[in-house]
Specification:
The structure holds 2 protein chains of 2 kinds. Chain A has a 5-stranded parallel β-sheet, sandwiched between helices. Chain A is globular. Chain A is 46% helix and 20% strand. Chain A contains 5 helices and 5 strands, in the order βαβαβαβαβα. By secondary structure, chain A is an alpha/beta fold. Chain B is α+β, with helices and mostly antiparallel strands. Chain B folds into 5 domains: 88 residues, no CATH class; 98 residues, PAS domain (Beta-Lactamase); 75 residues, Helix Hairpins (Orthogonal Bundle), CATH 1.10.287; 154 residues, 2-Layer Sandwich (Heat Shock Protein 90), CATH 3.30.565.10; 201 residues, Ribonuclease H-like superfamily/Ribonuclease H (Nucleotidyltransferase, domain 5), CATH 3.30.420. In chain B, β3 and β4 form a beta hairpin. In chain B, α1 packs antiparallel against α2, α7 runs antiparallel to α8 and α20 crosses α21. Chain B is elongated and about 195 Å long. Classes of the chains: A alpha/beta, B alpha+beta. At the A-B interface, α1 of A face α7 and α8 of B.
Amino acid sequence: MAKKILIADDEPNIVISLEFLLKREGYEVLVARNGAEALDRVHAERPDMAILDVMMPQRNGFEVCQDLRQDPEFRDLRIMMLTAKGRDTEVSKGLALGADVYMTKPFSTKELIAKVKALFDRA
Amino acid sequence: MNSRAKLVAAAVVACGFLLTVLAAAGAVLGAGLEGTERASLAAVLERRLGGVLMVAFAACAFLLLMLRTLHEFLVLLPARAAEQAAAMLEQPSTRLTVQGGRELRALLVAVNRIAEQRQTRDEDIEARIRAANAAAEADRNRFAVLMSELAQGVIVCNPDGRVLLYNRRARALFASSSGHGMAALGLGRSIYGIFDRHLIAYALENIDNRKRAHRHFVAVTESGRLLRVLVAPIPETGAAADAGAGRGLSGYMTMIEDMTETFESESARDQLLQELTESSRGPVANLRAAAETLHDYADMDAEDHRRFLGIVRDEAEGLAGRVEAAARKYAAVLKARWPLEEMLGSDLLMAACRRMVDRYSLRVCLDEIDAELWIKVDGFSLLQAMTYLAARLRDEYRIRDLTLRLSRDGAMAHIDLIWSGVFMSTETVMPWELDPMNAAGESSPLTVRDVVERNGGEVWFQRDRAAQRAYFRFLLPAVSGQQAGSSLFGAALVDSRPEFYDFDLFKGEETGLALDERLLAQLTYTVFDTETTGLEPSAGDEIIQIGAVRIVNRRLLRQESFEQLIDPRRSLPPQSIKVHGISAEMLAGQPPIDRVLPIFRAFVADTVLVAHNAAFDMRFLELKEAATGVRFDRPVLDTFLLSAVLFPNQESHRLEAIAERLGVSVLGRHTAVGDAIVTAEVFLKMLPLLAEKGIRSLGEALAASEKTYHARIRY
């Protein structure tokens, strides 16, 4: 069965690329436009992975990540965070809050796909 | 007994002696004679009496003559010489008249030679002192100019932290910080009123003389400006330093830079950079993902292909706009950092002309110079660029005659470097703009283009075929007329250079001496005056203005003044307005007395108060003591009483009358500061007169004042 991935980002131009890429790689893709919607969709549709942008309206990526990690129900959910701020402090914060992978924009699409695969293979 | 009396006495004694001897000889002769002999002698004498008397008289006359001559030689001439010698002490250029006997002459000649030697030596010493004084004065003037033009603030203190010197910049930095119409910085004041004592102590303690001679700290002013302060100790020189075992300190210097702007522009630049990188990451990510997808999945359908291309176009466009905006912002930041100054264009051209003539032996003339044109440029780099081009013209085309022209073109200025006769192609000359200016004797890593761009201008090469000439034209920003006016005003201010230094304070205070014992001439005074609603403080009259100036080391420091209007919280009697000219509107919004007095108390700290009819002003201040808790317990001198001490027989001791008596011009009376200045000038004139009366110390002045006060009360 195809793995389900949620993409949460408020920038449609990155969502289009990510959605296309992941679909091509054979994943099922869900899209959320903000943090609150991301949380709703994770709860409702139980994806296997969430790709969260840090800077989102309503709830930011950190908050969503922290929320999900506090819920044992989502222990197995892989979380990848994307950020447009390349600060080391932020990477540390994301990882500390429970993200599995942290990627800084602009990233290579190949690397992104490789990271996604690696996360699923690890389990 | 004078010499004439002596002479007369000597003559009387000599003649008496002669006559007595003759008489005695006669008596001895007469005593041994018989009666007949006596009779015949008497007969002989009787016949010869006239002759005998003649002989006696001649003997007396000869004696007198001898005496007179002797008197002249032995008494008169030495006495005259003594008088002349005494006069010579007062008037070293006069000499003794050489006369009298050989011995006396020799003595007088010797005395004259000694006097000659002494005079030469004195004149020599005086000339040296004059030269040394002139040199010191010149040094001081140079030093004062240097200080006043320095971009950093400078404050020099003695070891006690008393300010000996500060410059214009330092004054500006701290004048703006206190905002009470009162300077926190002043000669003789403590620097610890400006900087935390511990900051300076810490900096001084941590200076290791062998490695570094100074140390920095950062301070913040009351108004929130950020200052970078350098502290450097001034070591003791000469014997004092040799005697001391450790490192002697005769004072220290602080140099102050206002970092607020630098700091702001630096943080603006950092912020700009951060914004640019962070805000670009998202769009670049979108762009990259779309581009990579397009590349890696070439088999996608036409609809997807079109969507991805759309992303690429939109994001690229967005990024271009972002880069443009950042560049604009950066230019603004850069401009703030590049020190452009306003200067007269003609000054720049004069300097350029001199440089070209001196360095490259070119013949340069100035032509069509707009003498009114101000430009905003970095003068030095522009000068380098102009001379660099001139030097290349000479070296490569043997052009030795150049003309400089300056004209206005709207908001811009044209500076043209013109030559005639030789016409090169644009292609050969334009690269000159792009070479570093280290050819032809100029050395700079910048190119002409760099310089022109940093000055916000342009440069190009142009040929004027009709006039048979070619030129480089610099297009530079001109300063609008209004702005130029303001910098002219600035120049006028510089000319009236006030004195901000007093090295006599270097000696420090005569510590251990009670205030009463200290000399009047060495004390620091606050001379003040108040304007009030009326003459009866106990009947509810209030202070509406305080004005004060300071006297340090017998110098009136007009620029260190205090002036404050005060809201009396009561109505203003119309008759008082006639006196002081202060209207109710002027007092609206002014601080009340309980806010002003603590500030005034700080202004007068450690000084002796001086006022005319001080009892009146002090009464007002005393009545406020209970309400404000501010006590004025410094000693007070009253020019009214001091005038009574000096001129006990004069009827009037009004300020105008004393001022007239002492030759002080009265201007701007009945403003508090104006009256304070007149009082201060009067007080300064009184100091030497008091000293003549033996009143030198503060204690003596206070005692004399008290005595005359009681004397006046009694009558």
